[in-house]
Amino acid sequence: MNKSQGAALPASPPRWGLGGIAPRSRFTELSLLVWVGALAVLGFVAVVGAETSSFGSASIVVPAIFIVLVLSLHVFLIARRFRGDQVLMPIAAGFTAIGLVLVQRLASDLLLQQLSWTIIAGGAFAATILIPRDLTALARFKWTWAFLGVLLLVAPLFPIIGREINGARIWVKVGPGSIEPWEAVKLLLVIFFAAYLEEYREVLSRSQRRIGPFPIPPIPYLVPIVAMWGIAMLVMIFEKDIGATALFFGIFLAMLFLATGEGFYAVLGLALLLVGGFVAYQLFGHVQVRVDTWLRPFDEDLRFGSGYQLVQGLYALANGGLFGAGLGNGMPDRIPVVWSDFVFDAFAEETGFAGALALLTLYLLFLYRGMVIALRAPTTFLQLLAAGLSFIIALQTLVIVGGNARLIPLTGITLPFVAYGGSSLVTNWMLVALLLRVSEVSNRMRGGP
Amino acid sequence: MTTPIAASIRSLTLALAIAFLVTSVGVSYWTILASDQLANDPFNPRLIAASNDRPRGAILDRNGAPLATSEKGATGFVRSYKDQSLAQVVGYASLQFGLSGVEAAYAESLIGQDPADPISIWRARYLGERQAAGSVVLGIDEKIQKAAVEALGGRRGAIVALDPRSGAMLASVSVPSFDPNEVVDPQRQQAAMDKLNNGPEHPLLNRAAQGQYPPGSTFKVVTASAALESGFDPTKKLRVDDPYQADRSWGDYFVRSASHAHGLFDMSDGFRLSENIYFAQVGLQIGGGKLAEYAKRFGIGTAPKLDLPAAKGQLSGSGLLDRPTLVADTSYGQGELLVSPLQMALIYATIANGGVMPTPHYATGVRDAEGHVVRQVAPGAQGQVISANTAKTLTTMLVGAVAGPGAFAFGAKVPGVDVAGKTGTAETRPGEAPHGWFVGFAPAEAPSVVVAVIVENAPEGGVTAAPLGAQVMRAALGK
């Protein structure tokens, strides 16, 4: 496997209709999408049926629009003679379908909004397939991405545009609604880290000095690393968003590890995070509340206060049992803001441990597929990019499901593709498009399928 | 040579896969292993929904009068609440909003699974057998409760009456109140709850145990206890000249006397005429450390071990008395002090009880469906706070504070009984009328009832509150 850096990449794919070449079939993708379509229809029929004992028009119209959307994306890829991965898009579509079913189940007045966001996400996916024409161009502007990322990260702190919702100041006002810039930041971060680490990985890992088994990298290269840690802590303190901090720092550590192969960095980073967390616990009320709620949500003083949401979520899980109460037959609506923070518990209540395990397996499959794309990518930048993007989805899933199941303190991270929320859905679909783009580069170089 | 990235990718993927495995195991714990236990948790709304088809246990007063019962309605059993004045105490059992009050604190008992009866719990959990629910008996006495409601007469505030010997709550009124029947009525519950949560009046708050007020002069017994037990001579006369400051370093800060007094005061005079300057000087003589120690011993800053939620109050913002002006102000019940009516009642119950503080409790017992006692609620005493001698000396002075010549608290007199008690007029925010307090007990020689009254924003302060205390004590003593 030759991974020489800066290998010349093949020319970008031909534009629409050029060359008169017959569109390339994507049979695997199509056959998987059939299952996704069935999932959407059955889910809506079950949920609407359980609520009204009749098959209302919503149970057909919404899945129909959804199916038309994913089929258009499929046709779009074929028409582009796109040669990238055929599995990730159907998995993401499956998650999105489950998300739409759950919005109908838990907050049907938000369904139209979520459907609109799904269409926008589809557009963002298509746009990311088209632009930029050359993926490596992303690496050239790495400092731009870093600057933009930090700017977006601190945007909610500015007075007029920033908004605090549910105690976290991570929102920016846009027109009548709000978006979470954090969601875009995670993509920018991965692109920046991939580019930065491609350039400096040699220096960072081939360290001249060691203390015992611990590598001590040259100081100038440590500066960005420590700066990242500092920014993560600032975000935690001022935006009161522990989930974003964990994710932000997690991405950073994972990519540092990927680039250098030094497990020590990951261990050191985790230790720093724990120290930072401990100090924050001592100093900041909102961190204390989170941790106390996690440790003893059933205590009398918490179960009707800060622990209420978590306890209701655990009741929902408990009601799930092995096979669930059945879609539409549980009581997950007792959980406050269930459609965004606790959608996993809602899903598990109605589909049981079996459903929850299936969902987790699907995320694991997404991770696996993404990591395979990373392994096959021709340049260090593309490898780091694909691995970092796949890691985001896995870490987000672990953090929110772990929080929902009281394995770790609860944070406001979204369950990728499934939880209600526009910013998250759009960026996650762009993430899928980027992964597909990386796989296409490898496939073209190998002349593979 | 740098480690190949491929190796790192594989290790990271493996680590994440293990994390997914651990997470799945965690999910299986809640969905399968802990499932039965949580499904039977009395706070689980699914259980409340499922118990729609069978009655919940009744909540009774000490004489068996029903306060909450389940009645069969069109769509299942509906909870019915009889006494609005006990809304915050009895609470509600709502599918929508969960449980509160006694409904929450004794939730297991009310579905026939009292912790003292493990066999029922076992049968319910593993055999699906449900015991017919028993009842929870409160210490509340309908007659005293009614007297307290009438005494307060709809003014914002609270009245607590408790038995100093057992700690049982005899009456508990918190105004404004609400109608819990609306909170459990599917048609009206949302509107009702929105109204309850969105007003400035906080009707859901049990002011009796959770309200936090400056105690004013009723707190002087704490200063006196600290002084008496530090060897301070109560007969020693101190010079009172209004306005007072200890030295020039206080600047333009003065302690004021309510009666603009000039003269010599001993401790009895201090209580009888409620002289702030006298107690400020006592506090400064014994020092902030001693005063803080006694406030802590009397439970200021610690939530009372009540069977319902209770506020802990505060000695000061920092928890310390570290400035002379703060010591002086705290000595007569102002400064940064905050207490609940229940805490004040407990302080006086300690004096009434020979220096031993009782543990307060609303419920006195749990019975099964046939009326047999499942469990007595009798938490016992919390311990000796002050010596029996100190308690006796204070009682004598508190009797003087009600019946002595020119006594401020004369309104609390009950014919034929010696009442020991103290009024308080607690300054609140500038521009707002003060809160009126009375806390006392009777009969002074063998106390069987302690009453704490607070009337929010009563321009006449303690003068307003004292006769309300008398009304409640009369009902309790049958006079």
Pick out its properties:
heterodimer, A: 449 residues, mainly alpha, 3-stranded antiparallel sheet, two-stranded antiparallel sheet, 5 strands, 4% strand, disordered N terminus, B: 479 residues, alpha+beta, Beta-lactamase, 5-stranded antiparallel sheet, 19 helices, 17 strands, 18% strand
Question: Can you tell me about this structure?
Answer:
The complex is a heterodimer of chains A (449) and B (479). Chain A is mainly α and 449 residues long. Chain A has a domain at 136-446. Helix content of chain A is 68%, strand content 4%. Chain A has 17 helices and 5 strands. In chain A, the strands form 2 sheets. Chain A has a 3-stranded antiparallel beta sheet with strand order 1-2-3, with no helix packed on it. In chain A, strands 4-5 form a two-stranded antiparallel ribbon. In chain A, helix 3 (88-106) packs antiparallel against helix 4 (111-130), helix 6 (142-154) crosses helix 7 (181-205) and helix 13 packs across helix 15. The longest helix of chain A has 34 residues, at 343-376. Chain A is globular and about 70 Å long. The relative contact order of chain A is 0.13. Mean pLDDT of chain A is 83; it is low at 1-11 and 13-21. Chain B is of the alpha+beta class. Chain B has a domain at 210-362 and 380-477: DD-peptidase/beta-lactamase superfamily (Beta-lactamase, 3-Layer(aba) Sandwich). Chain B is built from 19 helices and 17 strands. Chain B has a 6-stranded mixed beta sheet, with no helix packed on it. Chain B has a 5-stranded antiparallel beta sheet with strand order 8-7-17-16-15. In chain B, a hairpin with a 3-residue loop joins strand 4 (93-94) and strand 5. Chain B is globular and about 80 Å long. At the A-B interface, helix 7, helix 9, helix 12, helix 13 and helix 15 of A face helix 1, helix 2 and helix 3 of B.
